[in-house]
Amino acid sequence: MENDHVDINTIENGNTERNNVDNNNMGERNMKNSNYIINGILIVAVIILFILYLTGRNTTVKHPEIAGIAADSTGFHLPIAYIRTDSLLWNYNFYNDLRDIMLRKAQDKQLEIDKKTERFRKEVMDFQNKLQNNLYLTQERVTQEEKRLTGMQEDIEKFTAQIQQELAIDEAGMQKQLHDTITTALREYNIPKKYEMIFSNVGTDNIFYANDIYDITAEVIEFLNNRYRPLSE
Questions:
Q1: Domains (ranges, CATH) in the chain?
Q2: CA nearest 127: which of 153, 97, 148?
Q3: What pTM was computed for the model?
Q4: Would you tell me how many other CB atoms lie within 10 Å of the CB of residue 78?
């Protein structure tokens, strides 16, 4: 007798995974559209800042109190800077600690899912073996066992979806905590520097080219790590 209700592969290749792929694709498209808008706003902001700076420079010395803003060979500079975000994160101790905590939590949850899945797999194999050897006395008993296994499968799928949601919420919280921490630190960092604008740059996502004198990544990494106190778990 065939078993039309229980499918082990559903756990590994179910609708949850396909939905996640669809959501990821939609998220990537929305992210690209948002980046285009943000980049356009940044370009306009820099142009306005450039014009204002030149206008002020022609009449009087602009920001004579600014400390630490580098100048090129002509002595000209703008009160702006940029940070290579990818480099900052990989070298920021706070980010690495948060990432390790999230990784360990995800691994622990995956172990729970694996245990439930393995138990279900064994139950299905046992059911199929008994079915093939005609060990069930009645059709009613077969139907009951099929329903029980189908219920186990659905429970695992619900549990997996719940874990994925919990991890997504935790990751969003981590990202917000990281963003708030860096933003607060940059305000403190900028008190003596007095930059008008500090850009975040990943590869060439926001800035295709900039003079290295405006790159403050290494200095900011040092500042962040000096003020960071390791997390207590």
A1: 63-105+160-227 (3.30.910.20)
A2: 148
A3: 0.64
A4: 19
